[in-house]
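Hi V.,

Quick status before I head out on leave. The structure for the redesign project is tokenized and pasted below; the design run finished overnight.
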């Protein structure tokens, strides 16, 4: 029980990063045992991982000892041909896209002008309808005057 309290205190210090090397060694030895307190078993895999990671070694060959592969000569002619092809495609498809954009812009302008003209026509038609309504009222009044005589 006293050992468990001591281990708990060491764990608190460990997570606060204030333990010494000897205290960390004590923690590793405790969690390497088979019998660990049940409330501390959750930390056992963590310390097992640290123990395994400590034993791992870097196995990649040193770049100085590896044989140096000769580099192939870079052929700039093919790069220039590829660049010319890309620029040609870009110029061709770019002008088509620009023409499509101009055509859409003109169509949008024509649509707006037509819409404006139709709105003007509708406003004038509304005025004409009002005048016709007044004429109908005038006609009705005229019929009443002539029919009374």
């Amino acid at each position: 029980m006293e050992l468990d309290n001591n281990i708990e205190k060491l764990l608190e210090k460990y997570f606060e990063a204030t333990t010494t090397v000897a205290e960390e060694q004590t923690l590793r030895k405790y969690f390497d045992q088979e019998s660990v307190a049940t409330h501390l078993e959750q930390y056992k895999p963590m310390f097992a991982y640290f123990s395994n990671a400590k034993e791992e070694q870097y196995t990649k060959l040193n770049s100085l000892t590896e044989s140096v592969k000769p580099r192939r000569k870079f052929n700039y002619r093919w790069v220039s041909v590829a660049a010319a092809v890309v620029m040609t495609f870009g110029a061709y498809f770019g002008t088509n896209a620009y023409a499509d954009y101009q055509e859409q812009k003109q169509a949008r302008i024509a649509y707006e002008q037509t819409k404006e003209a139709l709105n003007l026509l509708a406003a004038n038609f509304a005025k004409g309808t009002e005048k016709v309504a007044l004429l109908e009222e005038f006609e009705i009044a005229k019929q009443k005057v002539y029919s009374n005589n």
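Above is the designed sequence. The radius of gyration is 46 Å.

G. will cover questions while I'm gone.

Best,
W.
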